[in-house]
């Protein structure tokens, strides 16, 4: 591995040891500056589009302090559950700054989304009736999630569209716009999401082409004029040091060219372009900081750390032998430039053999007490945490732009674990 493949960190060992005096490991550390700079890049890349909006996918990092940063950078919130709606609302993200892209949705969630004035993105044609009957009628603005089925190729994580549970088929989509128009909806949006963790920009360019063409067809065939198209989320991040981030500027330009080629000549300008990314917004700017507490030498060599899969599920969930999925880069603090000459499995304490942050990873020799930083945990990291095996979720800390550290979620305690149990009737 060459030196320019070293993944950079916004802190060094000395700073982390200082932080550890106040907050024991493991903890997540988010980099405010990185998140803001990246948010500005995305907005600038689509700056040509009047009304462009990124709706940050709350599920990626459902923390009010992170959502507040997103809001300050002009983002909305993409929600898919009642708690996510409340979280957005409590940060002051309301009205059409909320995209409610849910599926298999209970009626109470539609009611709350309507109350908040959120954009309701329906996942199925039967939900038109469902919202009418259970949420007091259709909202004025309605959006539908399109599933192109065999017309599009999916990617590894999200699977092929025709196998995906989401969205309406093409004939259903046309029927849905026609009937919601009759039922009183006056403004319309169109959404799709066919990729997850995708670094190839062609996926998103193809999605824009597909949605722009549909916008033209809907106008011609039904006289439905869309307010916006939502390209979904799914922009990937370079988990591997040898991967390159997707070029947001080039993507923005490619979508602009399609817009000029298809939307303007059809007389459909202005049409707003939305996205709802999670991973690429915060992913690279969150780090799981953990300490080596054991080493073990049996048939293999192990480093045991004080974090486990309950703190970061991705490696255990996505790892497949021989494939590149589930990789999270690890830096041993203070040994950034030491030769990576020992092969180890980095493991947690769960009674599950897939509780491994790394398998056969070449690292500098790790000593007990060394601090390991697991990269790219800023999205779908802490939020996928769980309490299986009596493991408690760790704290989330925010490294502010001024260099100070703020705790934005405390670590769970045993009391949290027992809070849902009533021993008095035992
Ligand atoms: C998960 C999800 C997103 C965000 O996906 P990322 O991979 O984090 O960008 C956006 N929209 C919907 C509907 C989702 O389910």
Summarize the structure.
By secondary structure, this protein is an alpha/beta fold.
SSE diagram, text form:
Blueprint: H1 13-22, E1 27-31, H2 32-45, E2 53-57, H3 64-72, E3 76-79, H4 82-90, E4 98-101, H5 107-116, E5 119-122, H6 126-134, E6 141-146, H7 170-182, E7 187-192, H8 201-222, E8 226-230, H9 248-263, E9 272-275, H10 279-282, E10 286-297, E11 301-305, H11 314-318, E12 330-332, E13 342-347, E14 356-363, E15 371-374, E16 395-399, E17 405-409, H12 414-418
Parallel strand pairs: 1-16, 2-3, 2-9, 3-4, 4-5, 5-6, 6-7, 7-8, 8-9, 11-13
Antiparallel strand pairs: 1-10, 10-11, 10-15, 12-15, 13-14, 16-17
Notes on the structure:
Helix content is 30%, strand content 21%. By secondary structure, it is of the alpha/beta class. It has 2 domains: 3-29 and 285-414, Lyase, Ornithine Decarboxylase, Chain A, domain 1; 32-282, Alanine racemase (TIM Barrel), CATH 3.20.20.10. Strands 1, 10, 11, 12, 13, 14, 15, 16 and 17 form a 9-stranded mixed β-sheet that branches. Strands 2-3-4-5-6-7-8-9 form an 8-stranded parallel beta barrel, surrounded by 5 helices. The radius of gyration is 23 Å and the shape is globular. Mean pLDDT is 96; it is low at 1-5. The chain binds pyridoxal-5'-phosphate. Residues 57, 59-60, 78, 101, 193, 196-197, 232-235, 276-279, 379 line the site of pyridoxal-5'-phosphate (PLP).
């Amino acid at each position: 591995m060459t030196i320019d493949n070293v993944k950079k960190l916004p802190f060094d060992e000395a700073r982390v040891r200082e932080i550890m005096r106040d907050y024991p490991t493991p903890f997540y550390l988010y980099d405010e500056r990185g998140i803001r700079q990246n948010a500005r890049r995305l907005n600038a890349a689509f700056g040509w589009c009047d009304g462009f909006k990124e709706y940050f996918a709350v599920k990626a990092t459902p923390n009010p302090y992170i959502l507040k940063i997103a809001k300050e950078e002009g983002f909305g919130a993409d929600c898919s559950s009642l708690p996510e709606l409340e979280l957005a609302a409590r940060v002051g993200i309301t009205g059409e700054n909320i995209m409610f892209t849910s599926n298999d949705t209970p009626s109470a969630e539609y009611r709350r989304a309507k109350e908040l004035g959120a954009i309701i993105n329906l996942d199925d044609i039967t939900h038109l009736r469902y919202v009418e009957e259970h949420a007091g009628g259709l909202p004025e603005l309605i959006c539908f999630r399109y599933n192109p089925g065999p017309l599009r190729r999916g990617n590894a994580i999200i699977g092929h569209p025709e196998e995906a549970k989401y969205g309406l088929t093409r004939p259903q989509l046309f029927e849905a716009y026609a009937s919601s128009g009759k039922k009183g909806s006056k403004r319309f949006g169109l959404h799709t999401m066919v990729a997850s963790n995708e670094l190839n920009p062609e996926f998103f360019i193809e999605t824009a082409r597909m949605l722009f063409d549909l916008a033209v067809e809907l106008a011609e065939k039904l006289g439905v004029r869309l307010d916006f198209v939502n390209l979904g989320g799914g922009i990937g991040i370079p988990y591997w040091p040898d991967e390159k981030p997707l070029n947001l500027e080039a993507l923005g330009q490619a979508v602009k060219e399609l817009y000029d080629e298809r939307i303007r000549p059809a007389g459909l300008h202005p049409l707003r372009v939305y996205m709802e990314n999670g991973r690429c917004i915060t992913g690279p700017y969150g780090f799981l900081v953990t300490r080596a507490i054991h080493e073990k030498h049996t048939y293999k060599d192990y480093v045991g750390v004080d974090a486990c899969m309950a703190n970061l599920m991705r490696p255990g969930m996505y790892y497949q032998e021989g494939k590149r999925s589930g990789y999270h880069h690890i830096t041993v603090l203070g040994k950034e430039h030491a030769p990576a000459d020992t092969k180890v499995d980095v493991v947690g304490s769960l009674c599950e053999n897939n509780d491994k942050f790394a398998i056969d990873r070449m690292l500098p020799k790790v000593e007990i007490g060394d601090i390991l930083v697991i990269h790219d945990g800023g999205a779908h990291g802490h939020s996928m945490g769980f309490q299986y095996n009596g493991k408690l979720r760790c704290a989330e800390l925010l490294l502010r732009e001024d260099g100070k550290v703020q705790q934005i979620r405390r670590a769970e305690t045993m009391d949290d674990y027992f809070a849902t149990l009533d021993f008095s009737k035992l």
